[in-house]
Specification:
Low-confidence stretches: 1-14
Oligomer: single chain
Strand order of the largest sheet: 1-2
Order of helices and strands: HHHHHHHHHHHHEHHHEH
Shape: globular
Number of strands: 2
Number of helices: 16
Mean pLDDT: 85
Distance between the termini: 23 Å
């Protein structure tokens, strides 16, 4: 079956899936409202991860280049990806009450990632929740030209995953938004570029090389495909899919993705309690229990394309 034929046979799901679920779940379990709020301890985790990654970068500056790359890919990707997830928390205002403090928390999480994108990501990500599945306005949705290039080839899918950071950057350019505060964008750029310069001057180029590789591969392979289990499926019977494997310990509970879309105002540390309170609303949903299996299925199952998820426009 061709790529076009596969996409024609993928049934859409009506809009409002999560919005309707939220209302119904709260009717059955109003105590979930008590989980809504903020977790200021998240900020300390951000500071700790930045300090840890910077310490490792300092150690890497005295190592040969051939050793830096495998250390970054095998270890450095973990704190980089965790900081990305915590940047996501700041975008939902789940750390402090003050919007400004949340934005600053995201900028601090962004410092070790080399390229300033925290502020724009936070504001664009809100569109992912508001326009989930809308090709024109959901920045997480691949475009048709991406799908045509990649097709169903396992090799091209792998190449696309490796190059994912570039595709994410290109895709974000098409989503126009007047809500992104330019002042904060400049602050984000000044802080991150200044941090990069400080690392290069005070520590060295190899330290910066380690941080850059860790950040890049955190958004590409091996761990950057964390979002594959979230919205991709053969039959597109749901808008969102959970992942309930052991990697949630590393992924800051990112796998509780249905719970997050149902209750985006609940911080990462309380999402498992949402599932525990309302198991009948989540146990019946299709879910992923193995990150490796979900990634392998995406790459090798020729029924799956880059558009194999619910589309509303």
């Amino acid at each position: 079956m061709t790529t076009a034929a596969i996409e024609r046979h993928q049934p859409p799901v009506r809009p409002g899936f999560h919005r309707d679920r939220t209302k119904a779940i709260l009717q059955d379990h109003p105590q979930i409202r008590d989980l809504i709020g903020r977790n200021p301890w998240t900020f300390l985790i951000i500071v700790g991860l930045v300090a840890m990654q910077l310490s490792i970068a300092t150690l890497m500056n005295d190592q040969p280049c051939w050793l830096i790359a495998p250390i970054a890919i095998l270890f450095g990707v973990f704190p980089s990806l965790q900081l990305y997830f915590l940047m996501h928390e700041s975008g939902h205002n789940l750390i402090f009450r003050s919007r400004s403090l949340n934005i600053l928390s995201g900028i601090i999480a962004n410092t070790i990632n080399g390229f300033p994108y925290s502020v724009t990501y936070q504001f664009y990500h809100s569109r992912h929740h508001s326009y989930l599945g809308d090709r024109a306005t959901d920045p997480d949705m691949a475009q048709e030209w991406e799908s045509r290039i990649v097709g169903t080839s396992p090799f091209r899918k792998l190449a696309w995953l490796v190059l994912n950071p570039f595709f994410l950057a290109i895709r974000s350019l098409r989503v126009s938004s007047t809500t992104v505060p330019l002042g904060w964008v400049f602050v984000n750029a000044a802080v991150v570029v200044g941090f990069d310069a400080a690392v290069i001057i005070e520590i060295g180029w190899r330290a910066f090389f380690y941080l850059g590789l860790s950040s890049y591969f955190a958004m590409g392979l091996p761990l950057g495909a964390f979002w594959i289990p979230e919205h991709f499926s053969v039959d597109c019977s749901q808008e969102t899919y959970g992942y309930y494997g052991v990697l949630n310990l590393i992924f800051i509970n990112r796998g509780y993705h249905n719970e997050h879309h149902d209750f985006p105002s609940v911080p990462w540390s309380r999402l498992p309690r949402v599932r525990a309170i309302a198991p009948e609303w989540y146990d019946s949903l299709e879910a992923n229990h193995s990150y490796r299996a979900a990634l392998s299925r995406f790459v090798f199952d020729r029924r799956l394309t880059l558009l194999s998820h619910v589309k509303h426009a």
